[in-house]
């Protein structure tokens, strides 16, 4: 192996280059790598915290949904009870109104019945008096005619 000045110069310049890199470039690279590592660790921590938050929110959402379902069932149950109460109350008032209307109808029917009886009695009495009048007139006419006929026969 032949060592000459060129190789020696290259070795010295390479050693200077390494020293320069170790002195000025390497610490900045280490700082940048450490910063990047810290940033990645923070991101992983944030992701982990986010997963925990998401799980917590998911649990809260499920709890809210369960509570809402439970409340909706209670509301539906309460509404059904209210419906039954309203229907029973309406039924009661309808029956009460029905009785009232029936009583008014019976009173109206009784009044109409009395009015019709009075009217019928009046008509019957009018017809009876007219018939009696005709009978009397017919009786008088036949007696008068018979009397006139007998008088005519006697005069001849």
Automatic annotation (TrEMBL):
Cellular localisation: Cell membrane; Endomembrane system
GO cellular component: endomembrane system; plasma membrane; proton-transporting ATP synthase complex
Main localisation: membrane
TM ranges: 6-26
Protein's UniProt keywords contain Signal: no
Subunit description: F-type ATPases have 2 components, F(1) - the catalytic core - and F(0) - the membrane proton channel. F(1) has five subunits: alpha(3), beta(3), gamma(1), delta(1), epsilon(1). F(0) has three main subunits: a(1), b(2) and c(10-14). The alpha and beta chains form an alternating ring which encloses part of the gamma chain. F(1) is attached to F(0) by a central stalk formed by the gamma and epsilon chains, while a peripheral stalk is formed by the delta and b chains.
Family: Belongs to the ATPase B chain family.
Full protein name: ATP synthase subunit b
């Amino acid at each position: 192996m032949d060592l000459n000045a060129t190789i020696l110069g290259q070795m010295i310049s390479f050693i200077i280059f390494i020293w320069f890199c170790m002195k000025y470039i390497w610490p900045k690279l280490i700082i940048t790598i450490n910063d990047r590592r810290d940033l990645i660790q923070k991101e992983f921590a944030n992701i982990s915290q986010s997963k925990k938050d998401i799980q917590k929110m998911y649990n809260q959402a499920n709890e809210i949904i369960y509570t809402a379902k439970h409340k909706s069932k209670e509301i539906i149950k309460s509404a059904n009870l209210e419906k039954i109460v309203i229907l029973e109350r309406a039924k009661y008032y309808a029956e009460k109104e029905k009785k009232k209307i029936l009583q008014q109808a019976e009173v109206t029917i009784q009044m109409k019945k009395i009015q019709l009886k009075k009217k019928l009695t009046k008509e019957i009495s009018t017809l009876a008096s007219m018939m009696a009048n005709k009978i009397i007139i017919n009786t008088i006419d036949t007696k008068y005619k018979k009397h006139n006929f007998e008088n005519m026969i006697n005069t001849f």
